[in-house]
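User: Before I run my own analysis I want an independent prediction to cross-check against. Here's the chain; please return only the structure tokens and, at the end, one sentence I can use as a sanity check.
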Amino acid sequence: MNQFFFARHSALAATTTVVLFWFMGCGAATSPISASHPDGAAPNSSTASSTGAATSMSAATGSSTSTGTSATSSMGSGSSAASSAAGTSSGIVDASFDVVRPADPCIEAGSCAPGTWVDVTPPNASLTAGSCGNYGVKTVQVDPLHPQDMYALIFCQGIWKSTDYGQTWGSGPISTGMNGATMSDCAGGVTLAPSPTGGAPTLYVSCIRGAGLGFWKSTNGGIDWTTYPLAPMGATHFDPEPFSAMDYYPATVDPYDPNHLLMSGHQVDLVIESMDGGQTWTKVTLDLPAMALSGGTAMLYFIDNGDPVATRKTWLWLGALNGGTWRTTDSGTTWTQVDLNQHINGTMQIYQPDKTSGVIFIAGTNSALGDGVLRSADYGVTWTHLGNNEPEAIVFGTSKNVYAMYGWAIGAGQTTDPSLQVAPQPATTNWMKGMTPTSMSQGPAMAAVTNDGTNNVIVVAGYSAGLWRYIEP
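Assistant: Structure tokens:
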């Protein structure tokens, strides 16, 4: 589950002092378990076709301008101008950082045109090879304290890092230190918590397949890795046997506490919680059988309302194949179903523009309101439908626009229409179809958004289609 980060700054400033907090993991799912239906079942949509030939998205975004609405990125620093509180393992501690935004070298050289999707997959990375069952790349993260630095987990090969806003990714994986080789043989995903001191971020990885099966943590930016055991958590509704496997979807991180984590068990009715950065875990209560998934995997997110105590206990849970959308304000002691919407199996990312307006965007299918994008203005209690009535998997935003796209782990050699929709902020109206290149043959599982002081830059993790970059006009 990829994370949202609020690093508030001026979109026009190259250097900005921010007070940072890290926001919830964004629905990053790990790889499926079979070649035909990777997560145990087909997604909740029959959408599967090649995409259009156009590479420019200017028709969708060229006329969009900033509305002045506070809007941060779904996986990195956005371009709003406010401050937040910095989270530490002991709670909230105010700490200011000078976030330097070096010029994007590709933009500065005039060789990267805005409004065009560009394939930036590392040329020496394989999106198909490996013993772990390779479905490409599903997670990409940005460090909000170092907005030029991005991290991606490529299946069976480990963590790759970009230091130029996702344009290039070095000569190979950076996970070369302690336990790096074992962790790198991973079908899974990565989430990131920025450093309270402004140093290297903490990376959390969960693997559902491969030699790296289980949960991993790096405290030095992805070089060295430590694994922590996940003890059996007892029977689940779907599987009456004790759950003893190590396969979980990537951790969701508390926006105010980088050691407070949530994870969903892969294809079981199970959520676990850690208060110590993944060293120990306890089982979260679910409302079973009402929340039973029948073989799907849930996605889980912290909902930030500006209060660290309340945020710690307020979560949004979305099922796949079954279950709908549920909300808790007491860490799972009680749950309320707030919609029938389900996430696309194996893929999910939500977008919360700020912590004060109550606005949240989610995507999915099977809502009584319609397929695609749903918006809440009360922190997830009630919902309205926006845009086209078609399944979508992820929602993300910049200071200018909100985007929705569709993707799932269909496997190498197969195609899915990314089904791009775009609306200018605040995205309550004027949704329109965007364009993606034919070579973006599979839609994304996650998007990371950053800003170089002038330009919003989007990088998406598109399964077997690889990593793609877009500079917003």
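Sanity check: The CA atoms of residues 2 and 191 lie 5 Å apart.
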